[in-house]
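hey so u asked for the seq, here:
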Amino acid sequence: MAIIDVGKSEIDIRLGKRDGKVYSLAVFGEVTVTRSVNSAACMRLTVYRDQVTPEKGEFIAFRLDGVHDFFYGTIEETSKSKDKVELTCYDQMYFLANNTYTTSYGTLTANELIVRMCDDFGFSQLDPPNVAATEYPIQNVIIQNRNLLDVLVDALNITYRNTGKKFYVYDYFNNLCLDSGDNDSTLKVNTCVISPETCEDYTYKESLDGFYNRITVETKEENQADRKKVVAEDKDSIERFGLREYYSQVDAGENIDNVAKTLLEDKDFLKYKMSITGQIGEPRVLGGSSVYVDFYGDRYRVREFIRGWFRVDSVTHHFKNATHTMDLELTLLQMDDDWERTDPII
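ran it, structure tokens below
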């Protein structure tokens, strides 16, 4: 199917040289920007080779439609031919993931941790920082020859399993941000509704992979007698799908009852997934964003009953011939209406 009413997009890509001079770049062909959950954004593009040839380590800034600061990063790889240069660029999340350190922070919340990382290792953040309060204190945060992004993601996972609240880290035009997927002003993108009319094609996947209906959580004490153990289960789900058990160990300071409850809610939920191609572009969409999907009924020969909020696991923005489209990998967060009908259209 063909999408309709795709607006034209103006791209403005600038090269920052180490001497402080800034140049506009003429782009050849397509520009892509890929953003995944808790990962560095990657921009790939080809530019004409002239007297201002981009080089590794130089800065790239991408502004969209004159108002959206869309990407800022460094050139990490070049591939040169006679007339063109292919560039691969990453934002500063790349340096979080590719530098290892050893240090100790004691007890911190995840939001305090990211602010300390910015202060200690020279990363940029918004002023005031766009860092949501995660509230849960994580005991004995130690970085021992690990990259900072892994440590931060671990902190977010600990926060989630103790509070049930999901937070994501991302870079906004060279500023590290930490936010909840439910925040309407940032990650919850109410301006993006995916439907048969707005995309070219889709794949809808239903799988029991990663599905569990009994959770066993135990603390990590070396002495077996000192360990605490909690079991949470969904008897209706066990009857329907059979017993599927998941075991996890947590640190002694964690709330073991909350962990068991959160893990059951998370894993006793079918992870419906969708792959979307050719969706009308929306600059706000990135890894961790929430978007609304409406594939409900028999419109445009699409015979599905899918309607609800999905998390963006990964999005690739495509800019070509002044048109902005997106390819997305999505996971269901919250279903609406009569999701699993027993009388689907054939």
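The chain is about 15% helix and 45% strand. The chain has a mean pLDDT of 89.
lmk if thats what u needed
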